[in-house]
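Take a specimen:
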Amino acid sequence: MSLLPKLPAEQQLSCENCSSQRHAWFEKCNQQQLKSFQLYRNAQCFIEAGNYLFMEGETPRAAYTLQDGWAICFKSLANGRRQILSVAFSGDYLGYRTDMSVPVDYSVMAMSTCRICTFSEKNIRQLLLKSPLLIENLIHIQEKQAAACRTRLTYIGQASAKQKIAFFLINILEKLERRGMDISQDIDFPLTHEDVADAIGITSVHMCRVAVELRKAGIVDCRHNHIQVLDFEKLSRLARVVF
């Protein structure tokens, strides 16, 4: 894990004014609590696209909130490939383990320039002792992650390639919409076809072929690091067919 340079004080965002806190560990906290909890934040920093927040097997003695940007969480496989577990957006909480001395079993890499908030192991413990609400929030985060994992396993195991792609894209679009983005417009999409293929368990060649089919069918255009939904209803219907 590379050292992340701390941003100078004048460039740091306060927790009270941070839009990501609506989706993060501090989601249900009031303004007074946010002001108090900010004292336990160790640093804010930027990480550029292609750099790692941490790598599988490392032991970061900290956890991180993604304030802004896109990152992927993935596991490296013995055959040299990788399985992308999830795409992280603003508010996502990364790297937390109940026992922070245990190595992480996945890697996180920035796909765009990301702003990160860092909380040390010591400060996380103090925050949890200070506020039962943060314990509830942490449990809720882990429950949502487990539910998302079960849903993705169902899709990867049971859906066709076209359905897998539709589900993956709808899932991302819904997350972006909850963060205030207008998904009816052309959207920056810093994932390659290979990235999407590694997330849904197909080859990049197959991914490219199905992406062309979806574009020609007037459903979604996903290429050149942009995505434009041409028919949201059809894409959504295709994504929900397994359930």
Q: What stands out?
A: The longest strand covers residues 62-68.
